[in-house]
């Protein structure tokens, strides 16, 4: 795909040239850079496109949608993410992140968590000032920290909760919670103390089921009108197991997704000149052929968004993939996928990559005339990145290929 920078948003010019995280907030449908001091601070009324550079050649990009963001702003974030991918070389895997239902991969970039604040630019809200402290109740489930209604009915015996008040932070440990969960929540408590209280408030641990007559326990239950037995936790839609969903392949033409009639999913069904949507229920993949235009890729992304809106699946994940850079998870959805696939790399593309590597001080001799890159299957790596030997804190992650490997390709 040949793309001119004139086709891309000016905000993305120079993106990815320096190591580190880059984040843009969507304001009036345009990406506006977020200062480094505000990285990790998200607002519920906003949408963001995030990126990070730590090497060369391969990326992950995430666009995050707050629960109060408008549909138009969310659509703008999706489109701008496609443009950002083009600006970075067109090889990225792109993830749609919904507030409260973020992927483990995305959450692993922000330590120990993200806690979105009320407000936003796109919605016309005013960002909440730090001095306007309101009592907040959070439930902690692994890396997910979710703001829940400040009410006794939100509490249960299975989870761990954080009650954030002006002068004290309470950690309520459900009687059925594990030691590991409690230790993780303590990190979040410390983060809230440092971020929202300048490290100057008290911290208290409240044990569920232990009716000790101490001041902290009495103070905690006082915020809820006094102690009373907690109700049993009711199963929500999030707790219900996801049933099997037969994968459906759709071809996207002129913004319309049409089913592909087939008895089995194979690699041969994917045409390099087209874009496709693979609907797997909770996961919706957008596969973009290398010969497709920027507009066609934007159109395919819009078709995927429309698909989940029309089927009332707002929490489904959308993962966008470029031909030749498919993930192991995507390949696993097919009954047959070749062990080795040739990824066509144009001479123009090689020269651009070579120039990028030279700026980073790497030896690129022989790269410009290298043979097509062969992408071998890789062992499965989960969303947390725990199986990787090296782990980078980023929102777009690039894998570094040294000269010795490039010369063999």
Automatic annotation (TrEMBL):
<dbReference type="InterPro" id="IPR007123">
    <property type="entry name" value="Gelsolin-like_dom"/>
</dbReference>
<feature type="domain" description="Gelsolin-like">
    <location>
        <begin position="29"/>
        <end position="107"/>
    </location>
</feature>
<feature type="domain" description="Gelsolin-like">
    <location>
        <begin position="145"/>
        <end position="209"/>
    </location>
</feature>
<dbReference type="GO" id="GO:0051014">
    <property type="term" value="P:actin filament severing"/>
</dbReference>
<feature type="domain" description="Gelsolin-like">
    <location>
        <begin position="259"/>
        <end position="327"/>
    </location>
</feature>
<keyword id="KW-0677">Repeat</keyword>
<dbReference type="GO" id="GO:0051015">
    <property type="term" value="F:actin filament binding"/>
</dbReference>
<dbReference type="InterPro" id="IPR036180">
    <property type="entry name" value="Gelsolin-like_dom_sf"/>
</dbReference>
<dbReference type="InterPro" id="IPR029006">
    <property type="entry name" value="ADF-H/Gelsolin-like_dom_sf"/>
</dbReference>
<dbReference type="InterPro" id="IPR007122">
    <property type="entry name" value="Villin/Gelsolin"/>
</dbReference>
<dbReference type="Pfam" id="PF00626">
    <property type="entry name" value="Gelsolin"/>
</dbReference>
<protein>
    <submittedName>
        <fullName>Villin-5</fullName>
    </submittedName>
</protein>
